[in-house]
Each structure stands twice: as structure tokens, then as C-alpha cells.
Design goal:
Layout: E1 3-5, H1 21-25, H2 34-56, E2 60-66, E3 69-74, H3 80-85, E4 89-92, H4 97-112, E5 122-128, E6 133-139, H5 143-153, E7 161-166
Biased composition (Polar residues): 18-51
Region (Disordered): 1-51
Length: 175
């Protein structure tokens, strides 16, 4: 996923999607420098995201940058015009930020009740603003088993769960 998650769930952001150190350390006093222009553009997008988060309130789910454009997910179709007016791309999703964070807590509880190796195979939990669900970073050898268990047990109901291979060590993220 070539996006930068702008708001995390307290578990960190996708490590492959962090801002580069070049854009963080570029000199804003030289506007003709491409790195500086990229940093200013990204800072503007981050400021716009913060403003939309405040403006949308509980209807704001999460923002991310993809292909140089700010995307914002919301639970309210009525908020799409405000997102567009701010210059961002709006997406309507069924679950609020609060509901998704609660789903992460439920997945963590469910995980703690599983036997080895399942209980040590989920390494990270993040909100997925594109699907309106959550993404779990999972030991790649356990993805099929965890997928089947989640489908069977439905620990978070109908909230979408995506699994991606994790490079993490085999310890539970919830410990």
C-alpha cells in the first residue's frame, strides 16, 4: 500500500509508509529545491488533514496520502463536500474511528484466547481507512489459519479484516 496513514491507532503506522527523512530534513528556505517543495506540499496536506479531523468531528475516520493527494474517510456522506472543498478525496466507510479502535481491542482479546501459534502470530493492528476496517500484520505462515478462525469466530462482527504478512517476531502484539 503506497499510502501514508495520518492517524494511527496507538499501535504505530505502517513502517513502509513513513515520510522519508529527506522531506523532514529539507531546507524550506530554498523553494526551488524539489525536496523542499515536497516537504511543503506534504506539510500542507497534513495541516489540511488536521483541519478536516477537527471540522468533521466524529464523522472523521482517518486520512492518508496516496499518489500525492490527501484522502479522508468519513462515516457521513454529507461530509464529502467539506472534504472536497478542502482539496481532498473523500471516501464513505461504514465504521467510525471509535468503532474501529474498539474492534482492535476485541481482536486483541480474541487473540489472547487462542492457542499457540495463533496467539503469537498477530504482530500489529492498524486502522485501514481505504476499506473502513482494520489490518492485522500476521506471521505469514499463519495467515490462512487466522483468516479461517476470524471468519468462523467473527470476533468483530462484519468489520472488514485484512491480513498482511509481518516481518515481526513471534510474540503477541497484545502483551
Amino acid at each position: 500500500m503506497a499510502s501514508l496513514l495520518l492517524t494511527g491507532c496507538g499501535q504505530g503506522t505502517d513502517p513502509g509508509a513513513n515520510k522519508s527523512s529527506d522531506s523532514q530534513s529539507s531546507n524550506a528556505a530554498q523553494p526551488s529545491d524539489n525536496q523542499s517543495e515536497n516537504a511543503v506540499d506534504q506539510e500542507t496536506l497534513l495541516e489540511t488533514n488536521d483541519q478536516l479531523s477537527t471540522q468533521l468531528g466524529d464523522a472523521y475516520v482517518q486520512g492518508w496520502i496516496k499518489d500525492g493527494k490527501l484522502h479522508v474517510s468519513t462515516t457521513s456522506e454529507g461530509k464529502l463536500s467539506a472534504i472536497k472543498e478542502a482539496g481532498a478525496e473523500g471516501h464513505v466507510v461504514p465504521y467510525s474511528n471509535k468503532e474501529l479502535r474498539s474492534a482492535i481491542s476485541e481482536i486483541m482479546k480474541w487473540q489472547s484466547q487462542q492457542q499457540n501459534p495463533i496467539n503469537s502470530s498477530i504482530h500489529a493492528y492498524t486502522l485501514n481507512p481505504e476499506t473502513g476496517g482494520i489490518t492485522l500484520s500476521v506471521d505469514k505462515s499463519q495467515i490462512d489459519a487466522i483468516t479461517k478462525l476470524i471468519e468462523k469466530d467473527k470476533p468483530i462482527g462484519d468489520i472488514p479484516v485484512d491480513l498482511k504478512p509481518s516481518g515481526g517476531i513471534a510474540t503477541p502484539a497484545n502483551s
